[in-house]
Amino acid sequence: MKKSLVALAALAAASATFAQSSVTLSGGVSAGIQRTGASKAAQVTSVAGVDAVNSNSFIFTATEDLGQGLKATGVIQQRLNATNQDGEGGDLYVDLSGPFGSVRAGKFTFNSNSSYNAFASRAVSTLAGAGQALGANNTIQYVSPSFNGLTVALGVNLDNSAGAVGTSGTGIKAVYSAGPVAVQVATTRATNMAATGTPAKNTTIGINYDLGVAKIFFNTYNQKAGVTGSVSTGAAATANGTALVRDEKGNSLSVSVPMGALTLKAGLINRSENTATTATDRVVVGADYALSKRTSLIAEVANDKVAVGGANKRTNYFFGVAHTF
User: Fold this and answer.
1) What integer pLDDT is reported at residue 244 of this predicted model?
2) Which backbone phi and psi does 211 adopt, to 5 degrees?
3) Domain of 320: which CATH number?
């Protein structure tokens, strides 16, 4: 009897230990008829996902409780292209969090204002604005503990890309969330650029306000000239630099109104100060209808025109379905 009790105690202890770590699978699948293009002449109709970033992906998340308030997390994400199912990459990082805050290293985006608009990162209707991301490969960040709703994050993107010129990209952001209000202020400096270029400096402000009957989202951003992507030296750098160098200021305002299973959305983005002829002003309306907690019908229509001069107007749209798991 005594041996049985000892065995049961050992089994219970082992079970408790195993319960401290877990692996979960999550993600989503979406597809629909999409009409989009950078110009009216370049518009194409295709089958695509509603979200340009994450709607077609699966994510393995491993977490372990280390005790004393410490937790380790590892994330492996694979994004997919809805048209041909080719891999599109995804996040890959480890994170250690505790009373000190959290430290993360790997592949991920340090800063994005995508959560500060009603349409997130959707392929047709995104309103987040330009130049807000810092990160992807070779990124390290530290996020402070919350002080009465305020957290501060510091990020470094190491400059190890082939042919890049400059030093590491850096960023700092502050996020305040209390009650119905959430505010994010961030500035980043990306220095992967052509030899003749200058660092891309971006400052963004995002605000959410939940009125109960509706959510209001506001973004403003200011991007100074620079090449934000990895480019090689020589002729290719000149070509890429010409395409990517721009000064831009813009604002976006959007609203989301839940009405039971139906959520109505509307928004606009204005890029009134822009030296790139491909940048567009946008007015967009949309609706999500929840068939269940995980499956929704989605319809969005966006009217675009070139920000400089207002020429080259076109209408893009998406009609489809999205499922999360």
Assistant:
1) 43
2) -85, -5
3) 2.40.160.10
